[in-house]
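Exercise 7. Given the components listed, write out the predicted structure of the assembled complex. Treat all entries as one system.
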Amino acid sequence: MDTLASLLHTSPALAWMVVKVVIVFSAVMLLASVWTWVERRGSAMIQDRIGPNRAALFGRIRIIGLAQLLADGIKFFFKEDLEPHDVNKRLFWLAPFLAFVPAMLGFAVIPFGRDFVSGGHVYHLSVLDPGNGMGMLYPMAIGGLAVYGVLVAAWSSNNKWAILGGMRASAAMVSYEIGMSLAVVSIFMTTGGYDPAQIIAAQGSQPWHWNVVPQFLGFIVFFTCVFAETNRLPFDFAEGESEIVAGFNTEYGSMKFSLLALAEYAHMMTASALVVTLFFGGWQVPFVAHPGVMLSVLSFLVKLLFFAWVFVWIRWTLPRFRYDQMMHLGWKAMLPLSMVNLVVHAWLMSHGR
Amino acid sequence: MFLVFALITLLGALGMLLQRNIIVAGLCMVAAFFGVAGLFVLLANPVAAALQIIVYTGAILVLVLFVIMMLNSHEEEPAETPHPIQRWLSVALSLALGVGAVKLVLASRGVQQLAVQGAALPRGTTLEGVGAVLFAGHLLGFEVAGLMLLAAMVGAVALTKRNL
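Answer.
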C-alpha cells in the first residue's frame, strides 16, 4: 500500500480510502447482479425446473448459465426507454437513483474483515473507519431512505397500481422500522457501544457467544423486519404482482427498471451484511481467535452469501402474506416481541449478568 | 463544505415553499433535512446528524408523503379570492421570528461559553452521552413528551375508530 501510494503521490490513507471504496462498490454491484441469476436458478431448483442455463459466451463457453448476467445487462441497455405520457418526467428519472444510491451507501460502515497493520499504519476494512461516531446509526438512517425510491417511482408513474404499491411500501416501512430499531437497541445495550467494530469485537470467536444465541428473539424480529424493509417476499407488497400488476415499477422499463431491480438486490446484500454484523459475529471465524485478514474476509463473505441465499430460499418457499396480516404481524407480534427482548436484556443487565 | 450544505438546506427550503406540487415540495424538504444533517456532521456531531435523518426523513416525512398520497391531492390550488395582505403579513412575521431566533441564539449562554472556553466544553457527540443527558438531566421533560405523544395517539385512535 505504501509503495502504491508513493507511486501515485498520495498519502497511504487516501490511497487506501479509494481502494476500499472501489472494492466495496464493485463487490456489492457484482454480488447484486450475480444474485439476480442466483434467484432465477434458485427458484428453478426449488420448483424442480432447470432455470436459465443456456446463455453462453461466444455461443460456446457455458458457465452454468452465468453469462445470463451479461445477456440481461445488454438487453436492458438496448431496450427502448419508454416514458408514459402523463408521468412526472423529472421524478420518473430521479426515482431509480433514489432507490439505488441508499442501497449502495448502507454498506459503507460495515467492517468486512479484520484490521491489519502495514508499514506502521493501521488499515481498517470498512469504508468509514470505526470511531466515526455514526456507527450502526448510519445504516439505520440510510435504510430508512430506501423507501423514497419506491415512493417517488410510485407517485411519478401516475398509475393507480403504482400508487397503491408505493403507499403499501411506506406504511410497511414505518411499521417495521420500530421493531427493528428496538432489536438493534438491545444489542447496543449488551455490547455497551454502537460501533460495528465494537459489536463484532464483543462477540468473540466462539459461535455460542455471538449475539444470535443470547438474543435469539431479537434475531427473529430483526430478520423478519429486514424482509419487510427490503420489500422481499413474503412482504413484497410494493410489487405484489398477483394483486397490483407490478406495483411501483409498473411503468418502468429498460435500464431504469434494471436499476430498480438491482437496488433491491443491493439492498438485500446490505441487509445480509447487517444481520451478519449484528448477530453472527461479522468477520469472526468460528473457533479461530486471531484469524488472518484473508480468512476473516472469507468468513464474512460466506456468512453474507448464506443470508443472501436465505432471502432467495424464503422467497420461493413462503407465499405472500395478506396486507392486513402483515400489519398485524408488524404491530401486534414484532413490536411487542422486540420490546420484551429489550426489557428482558435490560433486566438481566441490571442484575449483573 | 459548509457553503455546500448551507446551500442545499436553503435551496431545499426555498423549493419547498415555492413548489406548487406537494410531493415535490416534500422531496425538497428531504433535501433541506439532508443539508441540516450535513451541517451537524461539520459540527462534529454525527449522532445528531444520524438522528436527524432517522427521525425526520426516515419516519416523519415518509408518513407525511403517505398521507398526501392517500388524500390524492397533487397540486396546491390557487385561492378563489386572493388576499395579498396575507402574503406580506406572513413575510413580516417570519422575518420577525427569524431575527428573534438569531438574537436569542447569539445571546444564549452556550454561545458565550463557546467563545470563552472553545473546544474544552463537554459535548454530547456519542449516543451514550446523549442518552445519559436525556435520562439523567432531562428525565421529566422526556417523560412528559412521551405522555403527550401517547395522549395524541389515543386521541387519534378515538377520533378515527368509532366502534373499536
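Discussion: Chain B has a mean pLDDT of 83. The two ends of chain B are 53 Å apart (CA to CA).
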